[in-house]
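hi got a favour to ask and not much time before my train. below you get a single protein, a line of residues and a line of whole numbers that encode the local backbone shape. could you go over both lines and see whether the tokens make sense for that sequence. a few lines back from you is plenty, here it is:
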Amino acid sequence: MRDRIILEGLRIDAWIGVYAHEHGVRQRLDVDVIVETSIAEAARTDDVAHTVDYDRIAQIASDLALSEHHQLIETLADGIADRVLATFVDRVASVTVRVKKPGAVRAAANVMVEATRSRASRDPAGGASRDPAGGTSRDPAGGASRDPAGGADGPRARTLVMGAHRLALGRRALVMGVVNATPDSFYDRGKFFDARDPGPAIARAEALIAEGADLVDIGGETAQPSSPVLSTEDEIARVVPVIRALASRVTVPISVDTYKLEVARAAIDAGASLINDTSGLADPRLGALAASSGAGIVLMHITGHPKQRLTPGYADPVGAITGWMADQAAFLRAAGVPRERILLDPGIGFGKTPAESLRLTAGIPSMRALGYAVLYACSRRTFLGDLMGGLPPEDRLEPTVAVNTVAIRGGADMVRVHDVRFFARLTKMLAMISG
């Protein structure tokens, strides 16, 4: 491929800068994106379908610049190049991104960073490299081995990989927006569901992304025990049209909230890149699917079926559930899922008493010590209302904020919430406080 398409002089606003006075202030950057491709087919047919979408490239750059505060333009240039390459990987040989920051130093008019990423530099599966053993080694005490940085097998776990998507961890907690393609959600009560039209759910997802969601989680079966278990066919009919439409319209990762193998497979085929398994690998074939497809996977602790609320009782809930996480994550690693594609979720409110859920919330640091990314999913849950004297879902924001703040300060890498705008701002402010 010798041809190039050049988007020159994109003017984007960004949260960028090292110094205190640059935090919370948008700055204007000049960005050039140079794509090496072949224009032969587009030139021959005069058809836009055979070239890259210029507007989408511009949107990728803008979305990434405003997704979080970056200290360095090096980070931003690298991220834009990688995401453009991932989006157009079948048509593009390489992407070069130049990011120019006017007035960065007094002695020069501008500082410019240039990053080039090529298809040849990506591994065949489009994901992160795997360790030779493919598993987690164990120390004599039965725990995952750790290096001096404190993570299992090292600090590389600070990137979350989901298919072609890579999300940096550690700068601030990421926000997963909840999209219920269901008529019986406990919170929105079917507001965004239409059995004949995926439009309301699609619009809801796009609204959450505009509010600051780093990814969206699409679910077709409510977790409420009082609601029936859906057939695989019905669940696919609810989630796949939403995922397929979003995959062609948004640049953030899409998660599917399911514990059914065939639903997960159909969702990945439609464009999902994360399996949010709420069963704790009740079907171990979900691990094999994640390994073969390159998708990320959420490992959520639960006892029994997701529709059940078994509460076995734990003398030490943090120790018991952290041990379960270590063992199940080792199973995933042995199945071929790299560490960077695994998220641990303590399953707050699922088969736990309110007291146990609170102890798990305070115990997030123990889970982080395993070296995997941690998802904290507790938004307007029933037990929060119960603890506050019987509050209905619409009045549970304050207790939701409290438990999520404790989890974030304890090291949770991602929160799954309904109130995206609120939590997008909260996570940015907490990151600023932490420095």
